[in-house]
Amino acid sequence: MTRESAEAGLSRRRLRPYQREVAVAVLQSVFGGKGLTFSVEIARQGGKNELSAQLELLLLTLYMGEPRNLIKCSPTFKPQTVISMMRLKDRLNDAGFNGIWTAELGYIVRLGNARAIFLSADESANVVGNTAHILLEIDESQDVSQDKYTKEFKPMGATTNVTTVHYGTTWDSATLLEEVKQANLEMERKDGVRRHFRYDWEEVARHNPDYLAYVQGERERLGENHPLFLTQYRLLPIHGGGGFLNEQQRAQLQGEHARERRGEKGRVYVAGIDLAGEAEEGEGDSLRGLRPRRDSTVVTVGELDFPGGDDVLRQPRVKVIEHYRWTGKKHTDLYVQLVDILKNVWRCRRVVVDATGVGEPVSSFLRQALGSRVVPFTFTQKAKSELGFSLLAAVNSGRLKMYRADGSAEYREFWREMELARSQYRPSQTMNFYVDPSRGHDDFLMSLALLVEAAGKCTPRGARGN
Known about the structure:
Distance between the termini: 57 Å
Strand order of the largest sheet: 3-4-5-2-6-7-1-8
Shape: elongated
Strand content: 15-25%
CATH class of the largest domain: Alpha Beta
Helix content: 25-40%
Radius of gyration: 27 Å
CATH architecture of the largest domain: 2-Layer Sandwich
Number of helices: 15
């Protein structure tokens, strides 16, 4: 295969116009020995991995007679690096190289003398010593450490003036991908050579009607301004932290229904329980006036309204209908009352309870008393991030509503926390949400998030999984 036929072959492969646009630019840099560095943002599920595999196939085929390497790194070996290797192997088989290509050492795919080396960019991975002759690819560049890339991956192409491609979706201004992107845009302004390629979901959908339907569903589920929709599909970076719920979202959260005091037969109820820290217990409610922001145990009860028809996969609408709050009361003193409220007053179908640290014995007791309807939730950085994204999705889509004003202390504290709640965005598309401890606690906020988690684990009667 000649270099000219390699470029011509792109039009015959399963690449859409925007993918071919990137591939041609990369190949011209490789064949011309230009050593350019590209940044490629393609909306989630828009085909960046297929683009990468087709480039690898073409270059391995072209250089199969020469002892040269192309190197691709991903943030993790499993599953990301493994998936990339599998895709390349499939494309080699599709091209008629089945039985010709070989695998070596669990991370190398060889075609003739040319090799594709797949490496993990995890901080602990030992990758020093490899050389990239043909191409250096950084997959999900927004999740790769800038220090790891600069010290260990970038030097792999120093002696060969290798062409480098950073693939990914945006996150915030502090990622490696954003750094490369801004540098590329600056160079483009100076010399007019395109180095940055960006294709949001609307561009991808122009060439794929099924994708259009999928993303429209995600937009309905998450909301147009959800951090994940903004970054993964619209390719708009988020900027630092800030308020967790803006004024518009708080307006969406406000409902018109009345607060209720007990359940009614035939309705479906769920609950989320955020537990007070034991370190602050046992001092009595009399201290609340002196320490108005003390940690409390909060139970949020919600009523579910499931979509009609056969669409059991859609999330139910959730109406917050009751709050319980105890401050300065030991967990052991709450056991009997919690069981009575959840079992007899509301007959809750699902209860998600904070099982982190001192919450573990409480969740264990409730599970023994109420059975599998109780689901323990352990707060980790990843789990809390997912909890926050789910809460935002419920608010943005209008599925979650708070009862109307009733003049209660619980109502006032709920909205106080919603207004004070902050968000902090972290690497690898994760976030933290909280109330600054200097301004109060986040018991109602976390209990609400656990309520949404409980709703997501509940299906209509007769549906599988309930």
